[in-house]
């Protein structure tokens, strides 16, 4: 390096000054120049300083002095100076220059070495600690360049600190061993626990299989008894008849022989025979035994509800993983007895060294007065940091994130087990994968699912026959499965079988390691959500035959907020979907839509309401049949009969006739009919069509709706009139459709959430246009959920993971957007459903903030209502919202409370209806909600895979839909809207839209 | 003669030879070390661009207490330079200072070519032309450069 520099300098010196680079200056040359007199261009001889501060040789000055005028013009600046009386020699000598000139630089190897040493020392840097020039090296601890001495002191401090640290680590190291001991104990306990749980499950199932077997034997026994009794009866009868027959033929033969004269018979005998034969003939004439009664008796095995038992078997049971109540408490206890030293780094001497020295420098820079300022400043910033920390902590707590210190002590993540170069992200991934594998293991262990389903083959009951009711009362010693079914030989319409199946939940308590921290914005905070989320979907698909829902670990929020120990629950829900049934459904395309009527449970065939609304529509035989069909809800064969094309045709014809008659009486133009719903939806259309016309159509609409609500969907008995969409990302394809809304002109807009776009279809399912696309930019979406059509053909879309609301015009151009993540007013956490009222106010379900926010049409926050909880008026994950035009009430599906809450337009709570359950009027995670033009409330009861209809006051009217993939069946239905008189349902997990 | 040559002149000459000013070449006469053959290239931004002007420079006995004598040998159309090549430049006259050198003098002359000063003329007719019809004057200067100063 030195040699290189020297060689280069030599080269430059050899060149003429002009050839050298302009910035290159030889410092020695520069010094030489400064020692040169500008007049003689030689070294100064007796340098004299002029009053103008320029210096020249005494002889040179002598020669340019104007002795005549006793004046001297400075050759540099031309300033005129008076020459002193004594002459030029009296000008002041330049002593500095003289002393410099006295240094006689002689280039010897020795002096060169000296100069080199001097230059080296001159170029030394200053120690950052003691500010002295010295040989400095970077201290690896505080990352500053310091001199040997300072480094040594520092290292000594470090060593002392390390001694203390080792002590402390040693003292606390038993925690790890304890934990590992605890884990091995835990593994044992876990296997024990799993074994016992397995045994429990097995025992449970064995018991029930035994019960089933017993029941089967009972049935078989009954049948055998019946058979033997009947056989005996019939055999006796046959014997009697045979004797009769032989007697008769004997008498005939005898009489014939007598008539032929083969043998004589006396008169009295003839008379007797005559009487006998006359009577016999009469007897024979009358002998027409009821064939059915005598030898067409049939035994039939029917089950009241074909789907109930398999359905119950599929859905019952649940394995939950629960933390013991003490989880998390450990941390807090710990903080009290762990020595402070380990957690507070400031206690370390060597760190103090680092801080002190910087502080010293600060103090030096800022001076005494400023120091106080900085002091207060740091205090302030500390206070700020504290506040931020608290906020963050509470935030994390709400979102169920592990706190900072906990995360640091994730098992297997200690600094000792970390390779020196590895970043801390990697171990976290490891723990994640570890967790998933553990989840997988659990999945495997709980895979033995109820597969022992009794296959019943229901057949339509014979209409006629001798009835021998055989009642089989089972002495059930299990309270859960309470079945009461009958073996009937003739089904009497009065009989009302009921099947009550309650699911038994098997809970399981397993201690689990702390949960990992999911990425922030997309973090699903409630279990409900995850369960229905894409991940869950994948999980379900992967283990299809007896699929298993793996919920992400989530924390119980309420408890958490109260600072009580957290109980994170893993919920492994067994939802067996018998693949055979599903497939057969798909093959046959036989839907099993069922209409429940309120009177059903009282045992009256066809509700009064039903009769009222359509008195002449249903003939008696059909009413009976329908009643029967309702009882055996999901009997496909029955349904097939019921929905045979002929019946459908008849129904349609009848309906058409009624409609035409009605129309003819009110309005001669039949085409107006369809407009009523549109008319209410879009003022523009009606305005265009002219005032008188509008008035007329309006009145028609009102009249119609008052007499004949939901005529369209109801008459179809839960059979969809149109189904469209399938999984995919192409045109006309959908991927997890969520929100739906109707557009003016009878189109349907769908939030195609996992394609991150909005699709518009015609009522027949023709794709019209799509817009959106994944992203965070303007006009881009990330899992859009809710959609509503606002005034002026706007589309209001909630952009769920971007935590904002976007307003698009009818062409799909972004008009405005607002929101952002957070709990403040006007910000969202997972906004879901959206609705618009007549005034243009936008209602947004802010799901994970557990509230509904109201905005004006420009997106200005105007109000909010609902807080987190399950009390009156509180919300827990509100998903969808609808506003009734009839009674100006806001209906919110309060999904995790399994109810619908209603509020007035100012957000004042009015009432709620529904609770968790599967009966009519009960909910399981209700989602979409819509209000028809009569004020009826249509709720998507997503967890029960059905659509329920209520009155405006929340009285249950009717429901339809079952689980499945066929037409009219639903899987994780999401949202609902009304298209004229039809109900549009987004069938999320079937990736399609159904119009009922 | 050589013995009388002051160290200053020797040094200046050495420096001029070693580290010449761009566009200026000054070589001492073989017979007289106080006599220099000078050649200045016309500055690019002037009408004398492309010209190669010959000058003679003589250092008088009093030098550096007296200014050197400089004269254009090449004919030049310039308001401050007359027909005989004499130069009207203050530092060559009353403003001379012993701190000035040959190098600085020649640089000043080069600068004078770039910035003719018709207010302080030596060649009055040229100065007149320069003041009344500068375009024509510049044209003439260029023409003369082409005619007389092109090598």
Automatic annotation (TrEMBL), chain A:
Q: In what ranges is there compositional bias, type Polar residues?
A: 425-444
**Compositional bias of kind Basic and acidic residues:** 481-514, 598-614
Among Pfam families, the record links this protein to: NHL (PF01436), zf-C3HC4 (PF00097)
Q: Which GO terms describe its molecular function?
A: ubiquitin protein ligase activity; zinc ion binding
For this protein, the record's SUPFAM superfamilies field holds:
NHL repeat, RING/U-box
- Which SMART domains does this entry report, sorted A to Z? RING
Q: Where are the NHL repeats?
A: 721-764, 768-811, 819-858, 862-906, 910-953, 959-996
Extract the PANTHER family matched here.
E3 UBIQUITIN-PROTEIN LIGASE NHLRC1 (PTHR24104:SF47), E3 UBIQUITIN-PROTEIN LIGASE NHLRC1-RELATED (PTHR24104)
Cross-referenced InterPro entries: 6-blade_b-propeller_TolB-like, NHL_repeat, TRIM-NHL_E3_ligases, Znf_C3HC4_RING-type, Znf_RING, Znf_RING/FYVE/PHD, Znf_RING_CS
Instruction: Enumerate the residue ranges of region (Disordered).
Output: 402-615, 686-737
Name this protein carries in UniProt: RING-type domain-containing protein
> Which residues does UniProt assign to the signal peptide?
none
Q: Ranges of Low complexity compositional bias?
A: 445-457
- Superkingdom per UniProt: Eukaryota
Instruction: Please name the CDD domains in this protein's record.
Output: NHL_TRIM71_like (cd14954), RING-HC_NHL-1-like (cd16524)
Residue ranges of domain RING-type in the record: 37-78
Q: Which UniProt keywords apply?
A: Metal-binding, Repeat, Zinc, Zinc-finger
Known Gene3D superfamilies for this protein? TolB, C-terminal domain (2.120.10.30), Zinc/RING finger domain, C3HC4 (zinc finger) (3.30.40.10)
Q: Which GO terms describe its biological process?
A: proteasome-mediated ubiquitin-dependent protein catabolic process; protein polyubiquitination
TrEMBL record, chain B:
The family note in this entry says: Belongs to the ubiquitin-conjugating enzyme family.
Gene Ontology CC entries for this record = UBC13-MMS2 complex
Q: The UBC core domain covers which part of the protein?
A: 4-150
Q: Which Gene3D superfamilies match?
A: Ubiquitin Conjugating Enzyme (3.10.110.10)
Stated name of the protein = UBC core domain-containing protein
What UniProt keywords are attached to this protein's entry? Answer: ATP-binding, Nucleotide-binding, Transferase, Ubl conjugation pathway
Entry superkingdom: Eukaryota
Query: Which Pfam families does this UniProt record tie to the protein?
Result: UQ_con
Q: Name one GO biological process term.
A: protein ubiquitination
Q: Where is the active site?
A: 88
Q: What is the source species?
A: Mesorhabditis belari
Q: Which GO-annotated molecular functions does the record name?
A: ATP binding; transferase activity
